[in-house]
Amino acid sequence: MSNLEKNPAEVICTGPEQPGAPPTVLPYRDVPLGGPRAMTVRRSLPQRERSLIGAWCFVDHYGPDEVAETGGMVVPGHPHTGLQTVSWLFTGQIEHRDTTGAHALVVPGQMNLMTAGSGIAHSEFSTPATTTLHGVQLWTALPEQHRHTAPRFEHYEPPVLEVGAARVLVFLGSLLGQTSPVSTFSELVGAEITLPAGASLELDVDPAHEHGFLCDTGTLTSGGAVAKPGEIVFHPTGEARLTLEGSPTEQTRALLIGGRPLGEQIVMWWNFIGRSHDEVVGFRADWQRERGAWEGEREGEREAAAEREGGHSGIPADGSPPSRFGKFPEAWETTLPAPTLPNVRLRSRG
């Protein structure tokens, strides 16, 4: 999913909290994805108080939304760098296409993992048969040594684990004796956990990891902290066993996201993750140039546009533009232009 904010803030993400600190509840803010009838998501990462849980750096929780009212998910081709996207649905279907040539459906209980690496572009549209859309979009930041890796797309359907009364699907990393086979570049864990009314679950976890529990339905209590839908109970490192308690009167469903603290400073703006303001400016210029070439702009217009972006055209001697984001799918009719960059260089927080 794209960050469709018209004026996205530049976020400098820094280090972890002190080990052994008590759990806290991370709130969310409502972010509309487009016009007045468009979907609104509940964004709980990044935020001022916390920008990372392990390498997880972006959490959008949406729905259940009636597609007839919101128009569903309509996200044309857009770029990413330096991250992995994790698409996970509870209800509905989404059609994915990207510049590696991948074309797949996102369906409930099955994970689509897209590694952007050095650069990728993709689109996401809810299918015509989808009447209700409900799910999450998650990003993880790639560590320095792997952030320029080749882009790729992977799909995985985790088995259902019955743990007491709980139902668990482990889609990333290892938990409860299950290990996901998909590629990760830092120590990560991701799982869906469903608790019937009044049930609880004890989890043995890696004390070197941070953990967050995103509440989807019901209410979730862990370590005395209580989260409502869209909120995250965050546990810093230092805990080897975590207890989850669901709502006493209704089913509770949550997503576990966790991992070893990234230990690196990243700069995140719009759909790009880099290590400096100038690097992100370069990613944006590459995208604007490539989408402009794809839309058939005249060479002179591309040159002028590149100059307005503060750079150069980057066109080799043979006249063909270099490609960071790959070959655009033939099915695409349009792509998203990058927003205007902030006119100041923001300082690091924390």
From TrEMBL:
SUPFAM superfamilies: RmlC-like cupins. Pfam families: Pirin, Pirin_C. Residues 40-139 form the Pirin N-terminal domain. Residues 292-311 have a biased composition (Basic and acidic residues). Residues 1-23, 292-350 are annotated as: Disordered. It comes from the Bacteria. InterPro entries: Pirin, Pirin_C_dom, Pirin_N_dom, RmlC-like_jellyroll, RmlC_Cupin_sf. Residues 191-291 form the Pirin C-terminal domain. Belongs to the pirin family. This is Pirin. It comes from Intrasporangium chromatireducens Q5-1.
